[in-house]
Amino acid sequence: MLNERDNFLRALGGAAPEYVPRYNLGWAIRPSILNGSRTAVFGPGKDIFGVEWTNEGSAFDAALPRNDVFLLDDIRRWRDVVKFPDFSGVDWEALAKKDLKDKDPGLPSGVRLDAQGYFQSVMSFMGFTEGLIACHEEPEEVKVLANYLCDGYLSLAEPCLKHYAPDYIMFADDIASERSPFLSVEMFRDIFAPVWRRYIKFFKDRGYPAVHHNCGHFEAYLDDVVDMGFNAWDPAQTSNDLVGIKKKFGNKLMICGGFETKAFLPHLEATEAQIRSAVKSTMDALAPGGGYSFLGGGPGADPVSQQRSVWILDEYEKLKATYYN
What's residue 58's pLDDT? Predict the structure, then answer.
């Protein structure tokens, strides 16, 4: 039987896996120099641009930009405020050795070469109210800022690829809420799709498969995402028509996720039987024919969530080899 790495990469390339792959967002390592003073990828502190992130009052201790202090109040002034750091003196070999010291060679290895995506960057600099207004009133300035950030990240790409030797590239830019996208498809295609395409083309031209992370009701943008060359999308939350998406794109877009973990939050009643049944119904709907990778586990570090994660992953292990010959 193929190990997890080879089985996942086989499915990521569009081929039929030996068993349902498992996916983990933590497989994509972001070079630690891009964390700024933040203690971890999702931790509190200041990022490389000076935006302050806090986990006070946020869900499951994941840090969010402070909503009372903003880096930028006028998108037309971004050149005076937003400065991409100079990383020319970085010892990439030593950095990669440190960042990869706990890497399991039997698991896929991804790399995420951005502090955060371009839409999210504008929102973190300005807050959602002013950031969305900027997209409406000054779209050309937003485009120039996004491309400035893209220039900075791509300047790091060659040494990163050389020393981190990833199996795939992960690009994240949460641009939707659970109910709907934050931007119309037309506005997305005008402002952000071109810079997404430019960024990912660099890696696709060098033969790397790509995974796109976007939470929420994101399906309106998937035609563009597939056309850009992304091979997979996570976490594929259930507010999207996942069965319809699978039918439309087949193995051209691997669905990584599709399991509704929020239904099993600690304060809600859920029996072991209900949780195991939910895992099976998810896999029954999305695994046949390939183009699917399971992503599940109760969020949170409390004992209830941890027990539920054990049940979820145990049920996945029981079922994973039952869908393919």
Answer: 61
